[in-house]
UniProtKB/TrEMBL annotation, chains A, B:
Residues 2-100, 126-236 form the DNA/pantothenate metabolism flavoprotein C-terminal domain. It comes from the Bacteria. This is Phosphopantothenate--cysteine ligase. Coiled coil: none annotated. Gene3D superfamilies: CoaB-like. It comes from Enterococcus hulanensis. Signal peptide: none annotated. GO terms for molecular function: phosphopantothenate--cysteine ligase activity. The keyword Ligase applies. It is an enzyme of class 6 (ligase). The keyword Nuclease does not apply.
Amino acid sequence: MRILITSGGTSEKIDDVRAITNHSSGKLGKAIAESFAKEDVVIDLITTRNAVKPEGKTIHFHLIDSTADLERTLKDLMTVNTYDAVIHSMAVSDFTPESSVTLEDLESAIAKEPADLPKALVDIANERTEKKISSDTDHLVVVLKKNPKIISLIKNLQPKTILVGFKLLVDVPMIELLNVAKASLEKNHADFILANDLAEIRDEKHHGYLINKQHKVKEAHTKTEIAELIKEEVMKLEEVK
Amino acid sequence: MRILITSGGTSEKIDDVRAITNHSSGKLGKAIAESFAKEDVVIDLITTRNAVKPEGKTIHFHLIDSTADLERTLKDLMTVNTYDAVIHSMAVSDFTPESSVTLEDLESAIAKEPADLPKALVDIANERTEKKISSDTDHLVVVLKKNPKIISLIKNLQPKTILVGFKLLVDVPMIELLNVAKASLEKNHADFILANDLAEIRDEKHHGYLINKQHKVKEAHTKTEIAELIKEEVMKLEEVK
């Protein structure tokens, strides 16, 4: 059995010294990788420099920074290997910086009433020659553009792989969390979604709901429990395929 | 002898899952701390979770995330302890997120021609109830406001301490780097500024210029050399004080 796991959080450059990062310790991804490694499953792990690293001699590491890196690495790996399952636990930035300008730049752009304001700001940013944005302004304006949704690529690349997606919300009612997870499951043709709420994650305590295609929900309360639950459910589905 | 070192890079929250981070491995701060620890100097080290940690039994750690945390911790420590020197090598974010809105929000705010656009955007952001910004928009606009300059606080708190500041630029001519460092030295009443250029930093290779109040410049070519140079110059100045 060969699987692909993504873990950690992406980081999107603003300039040569600043970036927008998605918080993720990589601890859950580590637990999942170690859980599969115990079964001698061959694992390709796409992760980041700062994420904690799992141990296991069947784990192959692929380090990335940004969402664009992730997309490239994922496509490369899914072109050369066939995966029985893809477990996409990485916290991927939904947006990437497109332009950074001063408030004065923004106001002068607005005064010209451009048809496409984001494009006008990109032009202003491109005219600037410094590689590090000057701190000589009271307000800085960073415009971000939407990143492609990485999870939606996976079933296009390998329709037969078992896809486990993740949905993290912050302090929402359980019913909302499950509904958002169900919508993500359907939209991305996932086999499972692990739904969790940042308000219910603290150290090893980690409350998660694993939802399958039949909308059955199983619960887990720690990172180790979540990792074991995902492994069991993926291996069960793999057997009956 | 007791000194205060800051090391690593700050991280400024955009929302509960995203932050703007300043790149800094903490490797130079680690080298500096270890260099002073060899001389049995007592060290308070303000650093971040992700920064590499120095070893030394005279080092006391103080972990922070944001520039606001840094300001609080630095003021607290400089109130209770007297430092012979403060070595401020942390990469501090010049800006912190003030509001995050969609492009549509920005455009509707502009249409109302507010006297204070940043304030109007703060009001819009405050009306939003979700704790994680929805990804359901093509462009996100993050407005950042200027942070207080931490380095300028140090000599106000302890005029007699020896202050070592850092200036990092990206791919500029050497003469510009030295001029910017000189300006920072005077503005912040620093005793030394370590000037360096990101284009000349790669792994252990790290080109730095240490400028003193008499504008004399000494050069170093690795992190270890920079750390030793700073230690020697600080201890020499401490002796004649």
